[in-house]
Design a protein that fits this description.
Elements lengths: L4 E10 L6 H19 L3 E9 L3 H9 L4 H18 L6 E4 L3 H16 L3 E11 L4 E3 L18 E10 L5 H10 L4 E2 L1 H12 L5 E2 L1 E2 L18 E2 L1 H6 L1 H4 L17 E5 L3 H14 L7 E5 L2 E3 L14 H8 L1 H11 L6 E3 L1 H31 L2 E3 L6 H12 L1 H6 L3 H22 L1 H7 L1 H22 L4 H11 L5 H9 L6 E3 L26 H4 L13 H4 L4 E11 L7 E6 L6 E5 L7 H4 L3 E5 L5 E3 L2 E3 L2 E2 L1 E4 L2 E4 L11 E2 L1
Parallel strand pairs: 1-2, 1-11, 2-3, 7-12, 11-12, 13-14
Antiparallel strand pairs: 4-5, 4-6, 6-8, 9-10, 15-16, 17-18, 17-20, 17-26, 18-19, 20-23, 21-22, 24-25
Helix pairs in contact: 2-3, 5-6, 10-11, 11-12, 12-15, 12-17, 13-15, 15-17, 16-17, 17-18, 17-19
Bound molecules: 5'-O-[(L-methionyl)-sulphamoyl]adenosine (MSP).
Length: 641
């Protein structure tokens, strides 16, 4: 088994507040990837921790009448306790107030300075304390608002040391070009590239207006200066491995992936690689940027009182279901919405009906028909098992490309194969005529479940273990190799009865947030009936490209009362010809030069002998037909999502 070094990190969390769903999300993704990597036999190191310096923390501590250190100790512990209670298998928990970290940061500063990458000047800029970040005048909202969090910024002018970020602009662009997977998912990569192409200014990396930070190396004799919190924070990824301090674990560097939220991608995909280039250290393989969570469609905020507290969810529903929900509900990189209803749907649907039920059927049938012991070497299900192995072959790349939702979707396809096999074999009928076929079926489904138990264990460790116990196997890197890599199959099983894995949840189990609601609204809202099979994933929806277009020509089609031949400009080499049945509802004048929404990736088709290269979006009811148009003018060719 390979002992490839794999280093995975979460962001280090600010200690100005306790953990919410966003923190749990990043940490759980990282833990899942790390557990998977360990299962593959890789020598894996998972780092998490807390970010404890900076003006924001200093202010939070002060407002509570505490010293920054006291306050940081207290909150840092709540993070560590939470991860311990959630069973997060981190290999090290770093605190930026740890001495070895401060030492490493000073060594890094010195190295960059000696290299000529740091110089002294005066800085004047708009600073947001909450985001610990400077913004240019043009970035501000209404002259003074922070573009990231909306809070008031203040103008700061002070003597500062600068990092020559501008020097690294071309190297960074070259790196993004040569390593298309550096930033995941790829949609985020383009944002970063355009930002860098827009021009990088040198970065102010020290402050004199407060004291709660890492001081400059003593040799520099600058007692007033403390380091910019992001320089201090980003360096945690190497100081945790002993950078500048014995280098004990530096053989884990470079990181396989830094998992971060989209709001801090800029720091990780631009500043951090530039710092690393300056330190002459290799760059991480990937920066994976995930989206943001809202609750019940609303932004979470302490003032509204709707922040999702991970501990409350886990106390009510258990850690595995929470982990599954977070990783399955939202494609990595996209924003997601937490609602108890959606969580319960996942528990009763995917987990209860598909996974739990399949194991229950094996436990039930084998108990009833074969005293829980069965065996078969029949090849009745060889084709089905080949399909299972085919799906498994694509799973590893999903994980390391951060496509964990796809990993799970594929596992659920495997479960569907198992459930379908039972349905179509009708074992309850066959048991009378061909019991050996029922044994063959049970062996097939149990083999399938063995693989699923191993594969879901990084995502749902407890459920994986419970399934493994029932099937009489163990989950470790040897069984991963045996059943997943080498595709081994067992000919016999002795099933142990375990209690139902995901009992049905009939009603919400969490205390409801006290969010102000308009009277009467909450109770009267009817249940939404969603079609069980007809639901599609967001990926499927995005297979359709819808764009804004401008109608540049309208012509009647002679033999038709209903059709117009339109030319619609989508910002392409030429306008498209679109045949639309809207003549009864719109005059030529109403259409000319108006904006429309066009399905742009439809196969061209002929309508009354005329080629149509797209379709307009419209809604029709008993009052007539209305085209769907953007509410405000938007650029031609803009994609709709
Ligand atoms: N301390 C910095 C990170 C330094 S890493 C060298 C920081 N800390 S944080 O505590 O504010 O945020 C940590 C993570 O939580 C970020 O990745 C951020 O994106 C994530 N989230 C904060 N709110 C979130 C949601 N509502 N939803 C999802 N994740 C969000 O930034």
């Amino acid at each position: 088994m390979s002992c490839k070094k794999t280093y995975i990190t979460t962001p280090i969390y600010y200690v100005n507040d306790v953990a919410h769903i966003g923190h749990a999300y990043t940490t759980i993704i990282a833990d899942a990837v790390s557990r998977y990597s360990k299962l593959l036999g890789y020598d894996t190191f998972l780092l998490t921790g807390t970010d404890e310096h900076g003006q924001k923390i200093e202010q939070s501590a002060k407002s509570r009448g505490k010293s920054p250190q006291e306050y940081a100790d207290e909150i840092s512990k709540t993070f560590r306790d939470l991860w311990d209670d959630f069973g997060i298998e981190y290999d090290h928990f770093i605190r930026t107030t740890d001495d070895y970290h401060k030492d490493g940061v000073q060594k890094a500063f010195q190295k960059m300075f000696d290299k000529g990458d740091i110089y002294k000047d005066t800085y004047s800029g708009n600073y947001c304390v909450s985001c610990e970040s400077f913004f240019t005048d043009t970035q501000l909202i209404d002259g003074s608002g922070c573009p990231d969090c909306g809070k008031e910024t203040s103008v700061i002018e002070e003597e500062s040391y600068f990092f020559r970020l501008s020097k690294y602009q071309d190297w960074l662009l070259e790196h993004y070009r040569d390593n298309p997977d550096f930033i995941l998912p790829s949609a985020k990569r383009n944002e970063v590239i355009s930002f860098v192409e827009g021009g990088l200014k040198d970065l102010s990396i020290t402050r004199t207006s407060f004291d709660w930070g890492v001081h400059l190396p003593e040799s520099m004799n600058e007692p007033k200066h403390v380091m910019y919190v992001w320089l201090d924070a980003l360096l945690n990824y190497v100081t945790a491995l002993g950078y500048g301090n014995g280098e004990e674990k530096m053989d884990y560097w470079p990181a396989k992936v830094h998992i971060v939220g989209k709001d801090i991608l800029r720091f990780h995909a631009i500043y951090w690689p530039a710092f690393l280039m300056s330190l002459e250290l290799p760059l991480p393989d990937h920066i994976g940027a995930h989206g943001w969570w809202t609750r019940d469609g609303q932004k979470m905020s302490k003032s509204i009182g709707n922040v999702v507290k991970p501990r409350e969810v886990v106390d009510a529903y258990g850690i595995d279901t929470f982990r599954y929900f977070l990783l399955r509900e939202v494609p990595f990189g996209q924003d997601g919405d937490f609602s108890e209803k959606a969580l319960i749907n996942r528990i009763n649907g995917d987990l209860g009906n598909s996974l739990g039920n399949l194991l229950n059927r094996v436990i039930g049938m084998s108990g009833k028909y074969f005293d829980s012991k069965f065996e078969s070497d029949s090849d009745l299900f060889t084709n089905d098992m080949n399909r299972v192995h085919e799906i498994i072959a694509g799973l590893e790349s999903h994980i390391f490309k951060m496509q964990i939702h796809r990993y799970l979707e594929d596992i659920w396809e495997i479960l569907a194969i198992g459930n379908r096999a039972i349905q179509s074999s009708e074992p309850w009928v066959k048991i009378k005529t061909a019991p050996e076929d029922v044994q063959a079926l049970l062996v097939f489904v149990s083999n399938l479940l063995t693989k699923v138990a191993i594969l879901i264990s990084p995502i749902m460790p407890k459920s994986g273990e419970e399934m493994a116990k029932s099937l009489g196997i163990e989950i470790n890197e040897d069984t991963y190799k045996e059943f997943i890599t080498d595709q081994a199959l067992l000919n016999s099983f002795v099933i142990e009865k375990v209690s139902a894995l995901f009992p049905k949840v009939d009603k919400p189990l969490m205390a409801q947030p006290e969010v102000e609601e308009k009277q009467g609204e909450a109770d009267t809202e009817p249940e939404l009936e969603l079609p069980e099979d007809g639901l599609i994933t967001i990926d499927k929806f995005f297979e359709t490209t819808i764009k804004i277009g401008e109608v540049v020509e309208v012509e009647e089609i002679k033999k038709s009362k209903k059709l117009y031949k339109l030319r619609v400009d989508l910002g392409e080499a030429r306008p498209r010809q679109i045949i639309a049945g809207i003549r009864e509802f719109y005059s030529k004048e109403e259409l000319q030069n108006s904006l429309v929404c066009v399905v742009a990736n439809l196969k061209p088709a002929k309508l009354m002998g005329n080629l149509s290269e797209g379709m307009l979006l419209a809604a029709k009811d008993e009052n007539g037909l209305s085209l769907i148009r953007p509410e405000h003018k938007r650029k031609i060719g803009t994609k709709i999502s």
